[in-house]
Specification:
The chain has one domain: Jelly Rolls, CATH 2.60.120. It is built from seven helices and ten strands. α2 packs antiparallel against α3 and α2 packs antiparallel against α4. It is α+β, with helices and mostly antiparallel strands. The strands form two sheets. Strands 1, 2, 3, 4, 5, 7, 9 and 10 form an eight-stranded mixed sheet that branches. A two-stranded antiparallel ribbon has the order 6-8.
Length: 304
């Protein structure tokens, strides 16, 4: 059974243990998360103008993509974004000497099928661990504007300990960095990028979803099966998500149980030290990758 913790007082070690077991944590908005969301909101409104949640009704989809595609890496790699993430981590009780984070993603999920591919990709049910995430990965998700149940995320906890046949064994994260992520803006009316998927129909019910205020946080394991809710709210949903790993957990290979994730490569090189932005040493990453896996492509994604 998945337990939901709201504004928990557990320390980070206790929280991670529960997360690896499939529990989910929710935190109310606080000054650090509101500052991160406000920074993102300013960039979105500078790019789209007034009322960006309804921008899709003012322009053809190609124009929307032309604006949003460069906005995503502009936010992701802005120096201020890293500083704001550090403050969020401290605010939630993480030890910056032990906590490593990857760059935050800026998401835009438009309404009524306006854009469901490329930079606005609507994820079907998946685990992040199918995408080469380590089993100790913790996902952080924050809405930037008010959201509704019709524009949130679905969680499918009945699959946390139930294997799903998938093609993660054929997913090479380095090749995806070099092509799939870099060429996302080219996919507007369809998405042909090679991404791991369930090979059989997944029962999306029962599912549950959270509706939080801007700056609220949902924590969950990267091993949780989750998906994008088909947005029917009439407004584009903008959100931030990023991921963390604990250095000691990486070193000792502690994390959620691996029941069906088989990617030959690892996304661990994406993570930076919360204190000094140093990368995880390669010798600690080696056990997470299969011998003989192709090293072609980009080990760390770098936008043009």
């Amino acid at each position: 059974m998945t337990t939901i913790f709201i504004d928990s007082l557990l320390d980070d070690a206790g929280r991670r243990k529960r997360l690896y077991g499939g529990d989910i944590f929710i935190f109310s908005p606080r000054s650090s998360t509101l500052a991160l969301c406000e920074f993102a909101r300013q960039m979105i409104e500078e790019a789209f103008g007034e009322d960006p949640q309804h921008a899709q009704y003012r322009m053809p989809v190609e124009e929307f993509v032309a604006i949003f595609a460069p906005l995503k890496p502009k936010f992701i790699h802005h120096p201020e974004t890293k500083t704001l993430i550090q403050k969020v981590l401290l605010d939630i009780g993480c030890d910056l000497r032990e906590t490593y984070f990857d760059v935050p993603r800026l998401r835009g999920v438009t309404s009524h099928g306006y854009l469901t591919s490329g930079v606005g990709y609507a994820f079907p049910p998946h685990r992040d661990t199918w995408f080469s995430a380590p089993m100790c990965q913790v996902n952080w998700w924050l809405p930037i504007y008010d959201i509704e149940a019709e524009s949130s995320m679905d969680f499918h906890p009945q699959y946390y300990n139930t294997p799903i046949e998938n093609d993660s064994h054929a997913f090479n994260y380095f090749e995806y960095n070099a092509t799939g992520r870099k060429n996302a803006a080219q996919h507007i009316n369809s998405d042909t990028r090679k991404q791991p998927r369930a090979l059989h129909l997944v029962d999306r019910e029962p599912a549950f979803r959270f509706v939080g205020r801007p700056g609220s946080i949902i924590f969950f394991s990267g091993a949780h099966l989750h998906s994008t809710v088909p947005n029917t709210s009439g407004r584009t949903r903008y959100s931030i998500d990023f991921r963390t790993v604990n250095y000691t957990d990486v070193k000792t290979q502690v994390g959620a149980p691996n029941i069906d994730s088989h990617s030959p490569t690892s996304a661990l090189r994406d993570f930076m030290g919360g204190m000094d932005f140093a990368r995880i040493p390669d010798e600690l990453i080696k056990p997470y990758e299969q011998e003989g896996a192709s090293r072609s492509g980009e080990r760390v994604f770098r936008p043009d």
